[in-house]
UniProtKB/TrEMBL annotation, chain A:
GO terms for molecular function: structural molecule activity. This is Gas vesicle protein A. The keyword Lyase does not apply. It comes from Alkalicoccus urumqiensis (Bacillus urumqiensis). Transmembrane segments: none annotated.
Automatic annotation (TrEMBL), chain B:
It comes from the Bacteria. Signal peptide: none annotated. The keyword Cell cycle does not apply. This is Gas vesicle protein GvpF. Belongs to the gas vesicle GvpF/GvpL family. GO terms for cellular component: gas vesicle.
Amino acid sequence: MAIQKSTDSSSLADVIDRILDKGIVIDLYARISLVGIELITIEARVVIASVDTWLRYAEAVGLLRDEVQGEIEDGSSGGREQLNFA
Amino acid sequence: MAYYVFGIIRGNGGENWPHAELNGKSYRVLPIETNQMAAVVADVNETSFDPSRKNARTHQKITSEAHTRETFLPMSFGTVLQEKKDVKKLLTTLRPQAEKMFPKLENRMEVGLRLTADETYLRELASRSPVLKNIKAKQQKKGQLHFGERLEAGEASAAFMKELHENIQQSFFKPLSKIADSVKSNDLMHEKMVMNASFLVHEENEEAFDEEVNRLHDEWKEKLSFTYTGPWPPFNFVDIQMKAGR
């Protein structure tokens, strides 16, 4: 195959981006003084967002998008088809 | 003695863990288990760890190791608990959620796909945008744009890139999410990046997913640079926030 995934080629920025504030995150205060305090979970979920959800979201944000396109089209005509290659 | 926590594993992950290099020292890694669930920890003798290159790589390495052994909920970098009973308390608190999460994550991996637009491709697209063309023509004629026009130019470029991001994400998300269980769009790391996504993929679909990425690569390689990484523990798909109760 022309392109293969690997973990070795990942940059430090990529590693940091992944590990720094994702997964299980304990508030700093709770971390340093866990003895004697109660630990509570304020959010716990597996992010299962299907593409449908995401596309609907993209369309909802399309409110924004229309404005943007409106601006693009104000000064010209036919800009939209040219950009839409999806 | 304190415990640097890498995450929560189903079962206990077995024995013979690789050592963890943290702050230049080599620490033993072991599971602290309570009833079919364990925290994977290193017993350390300091409590503060910066995300330096080596520390970050260690966190990645041990979490990846845990993830290859059993279903695993990764912890974010730098969590140190003072005592064993704190670790047990963490396990007790997380148990109900963890038990619900494990089945959704078992035999699944996270992979990352980042796409960066090539300069020539961006220029070519921009040259076909009437708005940007107008601005460029104005600039060439006048030599320099005045303040308001420069603002307009920036705004138009941003809008142009935003539209490009959306189009590209849709082109990639549609086929890839048929194979993946879940998709997550992450922040873009620089201006020319057009997609930074994570996918949760079942082991059984790993090959099909790789093939689809390759098909997309063949289709887009003249226009976009690909960075395809993984398999990773599901950092982007486990979202657990904890704090002190009052």
